[in-house]
Write a sequence for this structure.
């Protein structure tokens, strides 16, 4: 398994913390899905897990040798053809050239890459460029697959093919981490990214126990039904756990647990 422990990330020394203590385990056998709106930090977290950027704090352990990473935006300004580009990627991953080229043809056909792998990537449409990004992630069977918003940019047949490829990888034992917007949430173990932290989606609609992280915090500010209040612990019930958690975390509460 790949384990994220207390990971923090900001993009400049004085900038805001985009991730502020993220804990996550990406296990085989279940697809892990990070859900959030625009600009909350999904891509930031996925890049870190994939090893494409480094955390400012905390650590990520158990990343396997073969990581397939599909970024949200494929690099467009590449003059090489898809076949040349994927040939380089194959060499970097230790694949024999013949095997790489056979795989390029197979993936180009599965994803309906138009007009094909032998034109410059820069000349491809956005969606077809995204297919090349998918192809590089699947060139060698990934042990960890990280896909940033799989629905973005691809047409319906390509999305269905990508879903099939992901489920084949899952059956082969890959660990899978996806990000998604609320409008296109895939099946899996869902986590919501709120104020730089991950909250398991199973907490929605449940009773929630919170701990104040600074003195003087009043439970009145939680704007929810207070079920129990004791020193260091408040249990609330709400129909809108997202909004409650968003405000509570911002105000200085920390999540203890969901109380069934
Ligand atoms: N390379 C970067 N340099 C500076 N700030 C960045 C960089 N990448 C992301 N950010 C900032 O980090 C925050 C989170 O961005 P991120 O792309 O991770 O969000 P996201 O949840 O994936 O958004 P979207 O749904 O729009 O793709 C944003 O405020 C963004 O401006």
């Amino acid at each position: 398994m790949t384990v994220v422990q207390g990971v923090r990330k900001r993009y400049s020394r004085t900038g805001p913390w985009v991730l502020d203590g993220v804990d996550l385990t990406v296990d085989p056998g279940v697809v892990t899905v990070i859900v959030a709106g625009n600009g909350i930090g999904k891509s930031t977290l996925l890049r870190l897990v994939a090893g494409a950027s480094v955390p400012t704090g905390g650590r990520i352990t158990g990343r396997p040798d073969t990581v397939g990473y599909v970024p949200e935006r494929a690099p467009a300004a590449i003059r090489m053809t898809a076949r040349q580009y994927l040939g380089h990627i194959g060499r970097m991953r230790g694949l024999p050239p013949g095997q790489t080229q056979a795989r390029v043809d197979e993936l180009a056909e599965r994803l309906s890459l138009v007009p094909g792998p032998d034109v410059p990537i820069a000349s491809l449409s956005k969606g077809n460029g995204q297919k090349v990004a998918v192809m590089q992630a699947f060139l060698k069977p990934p042990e960890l697959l990280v896909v940033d918003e799989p629905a973005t940019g691809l047409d319906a047949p390509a999305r269905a093919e990508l879903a099939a490829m992901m489920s084949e990888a899952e059956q082969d034992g890959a660990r899978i981490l996806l990000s998604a917007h609320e409008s296109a949430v895939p099946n899996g173990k869902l986590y919501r990214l709120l104020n730089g932290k991950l909250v398991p989606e199973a907490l929605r609609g449940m009773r929630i126990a919170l701990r104040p992280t600074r003195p003087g915090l009043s439970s009145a500010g939680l704007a929810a039904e207070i079920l129990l209040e004791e020193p260091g612990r408040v249990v609330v019930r709400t129909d809108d756990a997202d909004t409650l958690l968003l405000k509570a975390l911002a105000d200085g509460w920390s999540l203890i647990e969901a109380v069934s």
About this structure: Residues 11, 18, 36, 38-44, 72 surround adenosine-5'-triphosphate (CB under 6 Å). The first helix runs from residue 42 to 50.
